[in-house]
């Protein structure tokens, strides 16, 4: 029988629990807090707690990546709007992959033979089956199992 792994990390990434403040974001990106507030005013970056006026701004990992990428493009000569647009376009495949993985991720288990199985939930074409992924020789492999 498979065992559940302890310390499920889904909520950490999926719910935006990895956050940093504006000072840390400024240090990481080399962009001043004043510029970051301007970028926020223009709608290019959005703090996680934007609906809480008067509170210190905190940013999710997604916004950290976006701000860092925008900073690099600005240094390469892009305008602010062009940098933001370019980053949004470049992030689309990563956002799709993120949603495919984390929206499907149900947890992980240790299989009968000791391998780690990633539970991707119900297999859409056949709801009586569950889809799992595992690594075999560093390559992802998929397994269908009858739903319990």
From TrEMBL:
Question: Sorted alphabetically, which PANTHER family does this protein's record hold?
Answer: MERR-FAMILY TRANSCRIPTIONAL REGULATOR, REDOX-CYCLING DRUG-SENSING TRANSCRIPTIONAL ACTIVATOR SOXR
Report the GO molecular function annotations. Answer: DNA binding; DNA-binding transcription factor activity
Organism, scientific name: Lactiplantibacillus mudanjiangensis
Read off the SMART domains from this record. Answer: HTH_MERR
Signal peptide range: none
Location of the HTH merR-type domain: 19-89
Instruction: Please state what the protein is called.
Output: MerR family transcriptional regulator [Lactobacillus sp.]
Q: Which UniProt keywords apply?
A: DNA-binding, Repressor, Transcription, Transcription regulation
What InterPro entries does the record point to?
A: DNA-bd_dom_put_sf (IPR009061), MerR-type_HTH_dom (IPR000551), MerR_fam (IPR047057)
Q: Which Pfam families does the record match to this protein?
A: MerR_1
Asked if the record carries the keyword Transcription regulation, the reply is yes
